[in-house]
Amino acid sequence: MKELTVATERREQLVDITSQVDSEVGSSGVTEGTCHVYTPHTTCGVTVNEGADPAVQHDLLQHLDELVPRSGVWQHAEGNSDSHIKSVLVGPSVTVPVVGGRLRLGRWQAVFLCEFDGPRQRSVWVQVA
Amino acid sequence: MKELTVATERREQLVDITSQVDSEVGSSGVTEGTCHVYTPHTTCGVTVNEGADPAVQHDLLQHLDELVPRSGVWQHAEGNSDSHIKSVLVGPSVTVPVVGGRLRLGRWQAVFLCEFDGPRQRSVWVQVA
Amino acid sequence: MKELTVATERREQLVDITSQVDSEVGSSGVTEGTCHVYTPHTTCGVTVNEGADPAVQHDLLQHLDELVPRSGVWQHAEGNSDSHIKSVLVGPSVTVPVVGGRLRLGRWQAVFLCEFDGPRQRSVWVQVA
After folding, report:
1. Closest partner CB to A59 (pick from B39, B85, B91)
2. Cys-Cys crosslink for C81: which of A21, B21, C74, C104, Cβ 3.0 to 4.6 Å?
C-alpha cells in the first residue's frame, strides 16, 4: 500500500489525482488487475468523473451544496455535518481497472479527491493487485 | 478484462445486465472471488438493487430527477450536468462476490447499468479475480 | 466468504460492524490486501464514516430522510421506495485496505451497515483477499 498526500486549498474542491495514482500503478509492477484508491478521512471522498471541463467539477460541488447545505439543524457540533454526509454520498474509495501496467480509465475520466471540509492535508491510500 | 456493450434507449434508463455479467464470470474460470463491473463513461453509472419490480427502477430515476434537475444554472455548457452529478452519486462501478463460479447476488438483487444521458451505446468492463 | 448477521432495531439505523468485520479479517490469515464488505439486500447499504460521535449518524439519517422522504408519489407498492433509493445512494458495499492482518481504517472511520427498512435481520458478506 502506498500513501499519497494531497494539500487542498479550499473548503470544497475536487483535486485531480490521476497522474499520482497512475504513477503508483506503474511502479507496482502489476500489469493486469485493479487499483483501489481509498481515503482514510470522514469528510472527503474519492470519485471518478469528467476531468476535461472544470465546469463539471464546479456544477457538482455547487449542486452538492444545494442538496446538503452547510447550515442546518445539526446535532454534530463541529459544523461539518454536511461534509460527512457528502462523503457518504460520494463514497470513500474507487476501484479502477489496470491494463498494460497503467490505470485504464475511460477517455473523459479522471480520479478525484473530493474535499468537503478543507483546506487540509489529506491522505490517499493506493493498492494495486 | 472483458467488455460488454449496452445499447440504451432513453435519456434515463436502468438496464439489467446481470445475465451478461454472470456469463463473463462463468467463462472466467474463477470459482471464488469477486467480479468488478466498471463503466468508463462519465454520464452513466453502475449499481446493484432490486431487479424484480420495475416500479423500483421508475421511482429511483424519477427521484434522482427531482434531486438533480436537468435544467438549472449550470456552468458546463453541454446540458448534461445533471447526468454527471447523478453518475457521481450512483458511482462508476460495483464489486460483487463470486461463489461457485457464479455471481453471488442477494435474492432480489440485479446489476444495473444506469443511463443518465442516453440513448447511447455504452461500454461495461468486467473483471473477475 | 464469511457471513455476518446483524439484527437492526429501527426502520433507519447505522450499525457499527467494524469489530465483527475486523475479526473476519484476523481469522482469514490474509496479512496485506483488501476486505470487501457486501450486503445482499436492496433496502440497506454499507458505508465507512465517522464512528466516534453518534451525532454524525443522526445527522446523516435525518438528512437522507429529507432528501428522500418516505411518503411520495411512488409506483412501487411496498412503501419502501425511499429505502431502495437511499441504498443506491449509499451503495451495497465498501472495500477497505488490510494491513498487518487487520482492517486498516482511518483514525475516525468505522464500517457501518445502513438500515433503511428495518427492523430486520440482515446479512453482510465479508471477503478478504
Report:
1. B85
2. C74
At A86-123, the pLDDT tens digits run 999 999 999 999 999 999 999 999 999 999 999 999 99
Q: Is B105 on the interface with C (CB under 8 A)?
A: yes
B&C contacts, CB < 8 Å: 83
Query: So what's the ipTM on this one?
Result: 0.98
* Tens of each residue's pLDDT in chain A, 129 residues: 999 999 999 999 999 999 999 999 999 999 999 999 999 999 999 999 999 999 999 999 999 999 999 999 999 999 999 999 999 999 999 999 999 999 999 999 999 999 999 999 999 999 999
- Is A95 an 8 Å CB contact of chain B? yes
How far, in Å, CA of B46 to CA of B110, rounded? 11
Residue whose C-alpha cell is 439505523: C13
Burial class of residue A107, CB neighbours in 10 A (0-12, 13-18, 19+): exposed
φ and ψ of C71, to 5 deg: -90, 135
CA–CA separation, B99 vs B102, rounded Å? 6
Contact A49 B87 (CB under 8 A): yes
Rounded CA-CA distance B53/B72 in Å is 31
- Cα–Cα distance, B94 to C25 (Å, whole number): 21
> Domain B2-128 is in which class?
mainly beta
Where do the domains of chain C lie? Answer: 2-128
Strands A93-99, A13-16: pairing kind: unpaired
C-alpha cell belonging to residue C30:
490474509
User: In B, which residues are within 8 Å of C87 by CB distance?
Assistant: 49
Smallest Cβ distance to A97: which of B1, B41, B77?
B1
User: What pLDDT, on a 0 to 100 scale, did the predictor assign at position B126?
Assistant: 98
Are A75 and C90 inside 8 Å of each other by CB? no
